[in-house]
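Look over both lines:
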Amino acid sequence: MGGLAALAREAGHRVTGCDAGVYPPMSDQLRELGIEVMQGFAADQLALAPDMYVVGNVVSRARHTDGSAKFPLMEAILDQGLPYTSGPQWLAEQLLAGRHVLAVAGTHGKTTTTAMLSWILEHAGLQPGFLIGGVPLNFGVSARLGRGAPFVIEADEYDTAFFDKRSKFVHYRPRTAILNNLEFDHADIFENLQAIERQFHHLLRTVPSNGRVLVNGLEESLARVLQMGCWSEVRSFGAAVSDFCAQGDPEDFVVLQQGAQVARVQWALGGVHNQLNALAAIAAAEHLGVRPARAALALQHFENVKRRMEVRGRVALAGRQSAPLVTVYDDFAHHPTAIRTTLDGLRRQVGAARILAVFEPRSNTMQLGAMKAQLPWSLEQADLAFCHSGGLGWDAQEALAPMGARARVAESVDTLIDQLCAAAQPGDHLVCMSNGGFGGIHAKLLQSLQRAAPALP
């Protein structure tokens, strides 16, 4: 919704908004754009008298235990018959009509792949518009209209709004659709994996016959989606027999298109997941006539996205100024598979150095405990794991019991920081993973590490 506000502002509209608990980097971007964000959902905001209320899917008809509405502004809009629409519908009607939409869908990697694809098209001179669920460092903003025909969009399967329970991506009508991967998530709205597969098939139904669907050939779930029916050109990536595949390490690999070497990617990003993201972006750009070799050259200058293994600081532990520094990272991982992928990628980069995984199960799926049994598996590459358990309805200590002494649990961020400072050693890599602000843990942790007396190795 923050990116949508930025697009509306760029299109010439006066834009205000309301939310609760806005955190960086989006809060910083909105402030820099001069978009006022009011805290809460009070009905007195009707005094602004906008032409249209664009409603995000955080809004519902829910009520507190005393019977009062959790979103009184929405109740007032409905009571007075004022105009409202969803974010995806407004975007489709006002900004996407007539453009070549490239939609990036998948359980994981949407933000990074959307940023990669946008940068490839920019590097090729196509001046794309984009809407990304993060801030790509190459652009410094999460959304822009662009001057060219392409518009690249992160295509989320989450529901559209309380009054439109379809997945967001069915509104976008892409000509190029990437299906990056697919596994169970969003347990608050989907009963099982089959329900999500059905929504992905609804996306396929919107792609025209002269469009292209790009599918990760390693995913059985996506094969089932295709078996439901597809009316467009299909190209695969990732598997050894795919139309686009890679040979070599994730940091330095060649790209094969139908068996012929067409490009080489050498960059700073690590992890097999980023190699797959790159293949998807290269294949999508090729649909617009960008040669893979040109795309690979662009990726050499790709700077990733904020909160994707973003180094927040390196500090010397108190009393150890001459020892190796401790590195603190910020990452958006919140699904067990994403946590495992993030840690696997870091392990490839740091070798035998110690990794301390710091995470909070904040997403709706994780708060429900639907995937708590997968947490020990997701944290296998971590030497120690620290879980913020505050507000959970399930026992994190019990879920992490298979990890034994390698797992620590704390109900507050401050207690978590104390645990980390007691455990940290020179040269450690501390990865903080959350899809929220995590209580500002990154800055607090860096400050505390510099003050704390380290444990002796």
